[in-house]
Protein backbone atom coordinates (compact mmCIF):
# COMPACT_ATOMS: atom_id res chain seq x y z
CA UNK A 1 0.00 0.00 0.00
CA UNK A 2 1.43 3.36 -0.93
CA UNK A 3 1.39 6.26 1.49
CA UNK A 4 -0.08 9.72 0.99
CA UNK A 5 0.25 13.12 2.61
CA UNK A 6 -2.83 14.72 4.14
CA UNK A 7 -3.84 18.38 4.30
CA UNK A 8 -2.28 18.60 7.77
CA UNK A 9 1.14 18.85 6.06
CA UNK A 10 3.04 21.94 7.23
CA UNK A 11 5.59 21.88 4.37
CA UNK A 12 8.47 21.42 6.78
CA UNK A 13 10.62 19.79 4.07
CA UNK A 14 11.85 16.86 6.19
CA UNK A 15 10.12 14.02 4.34
CA UNK A 16 11.31 14.66 0.78
CA UNK A 17 15.04 13.99 1.28
CA UNK A 18 14.28 10.87 3.34
CA UNK A 19 12.50 9.05 0.48
CA UNK A 20 14.91 6.56 -1.12
CA UNK A 21 12.70 6.21 -4.22
CA UNK A 22 12.19 9.92 -4.93
CA UNK A 23 8.43 9.47 -4.53
CA UNK A 24 7.90 12.70 -2.56
CA UNK A 25 7.76 16.04 -4.35
CA UNK A 26 6.46 19.52 -3.59
CA UNK A 27 2.92 19.87 -4.90
CA UNK A 28 0.92 23.05 -5.45
CA UNK A 29 0.09 23.43 -1.75
CA UNK A 30 1.65 20.51 0.14
CA UNK A 31 4.08 17.71 -0.50
CA UNK A 32 2.76 14.77 -2.52
CA UNK A 33 3.68 11.09 -2.80
CA UNK A 34 3.69 9.37 -6.19
CA UNK A 35 2.01 5.99 -5.53
CA UNK A 36 3.91 4.50 -8.48
CA UNK A 37 7.20 5.15 -6.70
CA UNK A 38 6.20 4.62 -3.07
CA UNK A 39 7.20 1.23 -1.65
CA UNK A 40 6.79 2.26 2.01
CA UNK A 41 10.59 1.91 2.02
CA UNK A 42 10.31 -1.87 1.46
CA UNK A 43 13.70 -2.98 0.15
CA UNK A 44 15.46 -0.04 1.79
CA UNK A 45 14.35 0.19 5.43
CA UNK A 46 12.15 -1.62 7.95
CA UNK A 47 9.86 1.41 8.37
CA UNK A 48 8.76 4.21 6.03
CA UNK A 49 11.30 6.97 6.61
CA UNK A 50 8.90 9.80 5.80
CA UNK A 51 6.52 8.60 8.51
CA UNK A 52 9.40 8.38 11.02
CA UNK A 53 10.48 12.00 10.47
CA UNK A 54 7.08 13.69 10.00
CA UNK A 55 6.48 16.02 12.97
CA UNK A 56 2.70 16.27 12.41
CA UNK A 57 1.97 12.61 11.59
CA UNK A 58 0.20 13.39 8.31
CA UNK A 59 1.39 10.40 6.23
CA UNK A 60 -1.04 7.46 6.48
CA UNK A 61 -1.45 4.45 4.22
CA UNK A 62 -3.38 5.23 1.04
CA UNK A 63 -6.55 3.11 0.86
CA UNK A 64 -6.73 3.84 -2.87
CA UNK A 65 -3.40 2.07 -3.49
CA UNK A 66 -3.52 -1.22 -1.56
CA UNK A 67 -0.47 -3.44 -2.11
CA UNK A 68 0.92 -6.49 -0.32
CA UNK A 69 4.49 -6.70 0.99
CA UNK A 70 5.32 -8.90 -2.02
CA UNK A 71 3.88 -6.32 -4.43
CA UNK A 72 5.85 -3.55 -2.71
CA UNK A 73 9.03 -5.64 -3.04
CA UNK A 74 8.32 -6.21 -6.74
CA UNK A 75 7.86 -2.46 -7.21
CA UNK A 76 11.13 -1.82 -5.34
CA UNK A 77 12.96 -4.29 -7.61
CA UNK A 78 11.48 -2.64 -10.74
CA UNK A 79 12.45 0.84 -9.55
CA UNK A 80 16.00 -0.13 -8.59
CA UNK A 81 16.51 -2.04 -11.86
CA UNK A 82 15.46 1.04 -13.83
CA UNK A 83 17.96 3.18 -11.90
CA UNK A 84 20.83 0.77 -12.11
From TrEMBL:
Pfam families, sorted: Fer4
Limits of the 4Fe-4S ferredoxin-type domain: 1-29, 31-64
Keywords linked to the UniProt accession: 4Fe-4S, Iron, Iron-sulfur, Metal-binding
Cited InterPro entries: 4Fe4S_Fe-S-bd, 4Fe4S_Fe_S_CS, PSI_iron-sulfur_center, YfhL-like
PANTHER family reported in the protein's UniProt record: PHOTOSYSTEM I IRON-SULFUR CENTER (PTHR24960:SF79), PHOTOSYSTEM I IRON-SULFUR CENTER-RELATED (PTHR24960)
NCBIfam families tied to this protein: di_4Fe-4S_YfhL (NF033683)
Protein name: 4Fe-4S ferredoxin
UniProt source species: Marinospirillum insulare
